[in-house]
Amino acid sequence: ESGPAGDPARGRALAGGPPYVLAVGTIEPRKDLPTLVEAMGRLWADGHDTRLVLAGPDGWGTPDLEQAMARTGAAHLVHRLGYVSDSQRADLLAGATCLAYPSRYEGFGLPPLEAMAQGTPVVATSIGAVTEVCADAALLVPPGDPDALAGALASVLTDESVAARLVAAGRQRPPLFSWDRTAADLGRLYRQLAAAR
Closest Cα partner for 23 from 45, 56, 1, 48? Predict the structure, then answer.
């Protein structure tokens, strides 16, 4: 399920004000936050003032993230919140200009669906299940490519028609992954398997 409805105003207050790109999850290498910081660095160098908000506890990827922040010279534009509650996460997703999901590997990829349910555009990497979950409702870029990621983020941040298209398409995605639908699909699969024996 897509979780609670967030309050955009509370999310923006928690983030320190709009506009912001949000990334969620524990800071670990598979999340590839250093590439996201590099991509944001390109936007900041071009004069964008959109901040990067990271919501999630420190993990074993923290040193690489801190090195990337030092390299961009724009650590003041990165706001690290640490662990957030489910309701704070929903608020942050609702208030974000965009969710960035730059992972190198994911088993499923729930944050993009959560963002779509809140009406927030998504930029994600074209990996495994994330491609399937997002389909055409996100801008998908190759993993580990800061230029492609920066380009996709810039188009969401600067082109209202791109953002609006992603929001509209995104609203259609979460219902496809509800528990009710999953249970019905599994039941149908089991009946087919039983009939085939």
Answer: 56
Helix (DSSP H) and strand (DSSP E) numbers for the chain: 9, 6
The pLDDT score that the predictor gives to residue 186 is 66
* CA gap 75, 52 in Å, rounded: 9
Decide if 23 contacts 53 (C-beta within 8 A): yes
Question: Tokens 């640490």 belong to which residue?
Answer: 82
Q: Which helix (H) or strand (E) holds 99?
A: strand 98-101
Per-block average pLDDT, block size 10, for the chain (197 residues)?
A: 80 95 96 97 94 97 96 91 96 98 90 95 95 94 98 97 97 81 67 79
Q: What is the pTM of this model?
A: 0.89
Q: Determine the residue type at 101.
A: Y
C-alpha 124/C-alpha 173 separation (Å) is 15
Q: Is 120 exposed, middle or buried (0-12, 13-18, 19+ CB in 10 A)?
A: buried
Count CB-CB contacts under 10 A for residue 88. Answer: 17
3-state secondary structure of 80: strand
CB 113 within 8 A of CB 177: yes
Distance in angstroms (rounded) separating the CA atoms of residues 82 and 68 = 17
